[in-house]
Write a structure and sequence with these properties.
Strand order of the largest sheet: 3-4-5-6
Shape: globular
Oligomer: single chain
Number of strands: 12
Radius of gyration: 21 Å
Number of helices: 11
Helix content: 25-40%
Strand content: 5-15%
Largest sheet: 4 strands, parallel
């Protein structure tokens, strides 16, 4: 997350380190604070954010013993709708069963990206744990979404557009009709662009960007497309639960479609003026979802 980020380090990061990485100034005294955090007076801080409960469960447990729960925020960025520890992919159930209610102290806020409903977020455990079918989602489990640094937003005029869609297409139905594009299957770790600027330039030259639900409904792609002036074409957006990110996408700032023919009908129905209006609304949406805006909304909820 901190600058400078070498090219070698960037290539080892998922997504080639685009958009989010190497942006923060690494102030020496703060670097020391991070490294020795458990050896200093940890109670002096105002707020403690567990950025990924699945990978930082141990740190959460230590904090619970040291500081007031009102100061702790838990973030769950998993693609699964289940909340910790009900999603059993990274941690065994037997290891975590005794901690099943630990994240849900009434004073601890638990922010979940794939925020659906109590059943989908908690059920899925084998017998004899069917009692979880009666599980009630705690009130302090709240929705959150991806975001993008405001420094990564580039205002692009419609006249700059040279093509219809971005180079990377995640919907095979659309890909089959555009032979010059690249299809990106679910889980693919090979990337079409080696530099962030080349990736952004491709988006900026495109009128539209194809996106869809992958492992989860929300992903950074939505925000990268909108931040670089490509209107989102979101497959099956109407099926997304209203409580689940991305929030705020609708018919005025994006195109929802179910198949290629419906998509093209909607695109062809847009004249130049209507495209400009939708593009401006898309920019309004992305400015509401910068990292700064999302963080401020979270802090205002304390």
């Amino acid at each position: 997350m901190y600058a400078p980020l070498s090219d070698g380090m960037r290539k080892k990061i998922r997504g080639n380190g685009f958009t989010l990485y190497g942006l923060l100034p690494d102030i020496p005294e703060l670097a020391e604070e991070r490294f020795f955090i458990w050896f200093k007076n940890i109670k002096e801080y105002d707020l403690y954010i567990i950025a990924d409960i699945w990978n930082h469960w141990d740190a959460y447990q230590q904090l619970c013993k040291l500081v007031e729960p009102e100061k702790i925020i838990v973030i769950d960025p998993s693609d699964s709708p289940r909340i910790y520890p009900h999603n059993n992919h990274r941690n065994t159930f037997l290891k975590n069963v005794l901690n099943i209610n630990r994240p849900f102290h009434n004073a601890i806020r638990y922010y979940k990206r794939e925020f659906l409903n109590a059943t989908s977020m908690s059920v899925g455990l084998p017998a004899p744990f069917s009692w979880l079918l009666q599980y009630k989602l705690p009130e302090q489990v709240l929705p959150i979404n991806f975001s993008i640094p405001s420094s990564k937003i580039t205002m692009i005029e419609p006249a700059h557009k040279k093509k219809l869609f971005t180079n990377n297409i995640v919907d095979e139905d659309v890909f089959k009709n555009f032979s010059t594009s690249h299809f990106i299957p679910l889980g693919m770790e090979k990337y079409s662009f080696e530099s962030e600027q080349d990736y952004y330039t491709d988006i900026q030259q495109s009128k539209f960007g194809i996106t869809t639900k992958r492992s989860g409904w929300d992903c950074l792609r939505h925000y990268e497309f909108a931040a670089n002036g490509a209107i989102l074409c979101f497959k099956q957006l109407s099926q997304k639960p209203a409580s689940c990110a991305p929030h705020g996408l609708n018919e005025v700032n994006s195109i929802a479609y179910s198949n290629y023919h419906e998509l093209m009908d909607k695109i062809n129905a847009l004249n130049d003026d209507a495209y400009v209006v939708m593009l401006n609304k898309s920019y309004d949406w992305i400015f509401e979802n910068t990292t700064e805006a999302v963080a401020n909304r979270m802090l205002q909820g304390l």
